[in-house]
Design goal:
Blueprint: E1 23-27, E2 30-34, E3 49-53, E4 62-63
Length: 68
């Protein structure tokens, strides 16, 4: 028997600035994203930390205090 379940995709707001190789986690209804690189050959990670509330995605990403 074939499954009729399908994966659904929804566009979310863009991050506040371009970055790659960051790390993220879904905790409850919030997505947390931190770190990453601004350019491909960067030698230091960004000190960025953002959160997006999936219950209010139109509010956009909020900047949080980064770690030391």
């Amino acid at each position: 028997m074939l499954s009729t379940k399908r994966t659904k995709f929804k566009s979310l707001p863009s991050l506040p600035r371009p970055c790659a190789n960051m790390c993220g986690a879904l905790v409850g209804n919030k997505i947390y994203v931190g770190g990453g690189l601004e350019i491909a050959d960067a030698t230091n990670a960004l000190k960025t930390f953002w959160v997006l509330d999936l219950e209010k995605p139109d509010a956009g990403w909020k900047e949080l205090k980064p770690w030391p």
